[in-house]
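Researcher: Sequence recovery benchmark, item below. Answer with residues only.
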């Protein structure tokens, strides 16, 4: 078993965060729908083109992949796996809350 360092735990959390965040952007981009990205005006609230969303999805996938690899997530280290899932839960809650507010506007 490999040695686990503090940054493996941080990488596990953000790997889940970035990997799950790729899905809504990829789905909206491939569907031809505008959807918020950090590149929109205002950032995160305005709508970006489907092409921008597809690009942003792949950026998230690449970052998430490298963080996942750096994190050493496995079924052997339950805490790493739980932090990976916690990152997914965190972005899910953040997205659901932000989009619920946006729908009320």
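Model:
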């Amino acid at each position: 078993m490999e040695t686990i360092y503090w940054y493996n735990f941080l990488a596990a959390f953000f790997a889940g965060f970035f990997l799950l965040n790729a899905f809504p952007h990829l789905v909206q981009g491939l569907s031809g729908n505008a959807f918020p990205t950090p590149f929109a005006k205002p950032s995160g609230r305005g709508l970006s083109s489907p092409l921008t969303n597809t690009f942003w999805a792949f950026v998230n996938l690449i970052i998430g992949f490298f963080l996942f690899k750096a994190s050493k997530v496995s079924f052997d280290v339950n805490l790493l796996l739980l932090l990976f899932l916690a990152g997914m839960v965190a972005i899910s809650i953040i997205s659901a809350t932000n989009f619920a507010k946006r729908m009320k506007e």
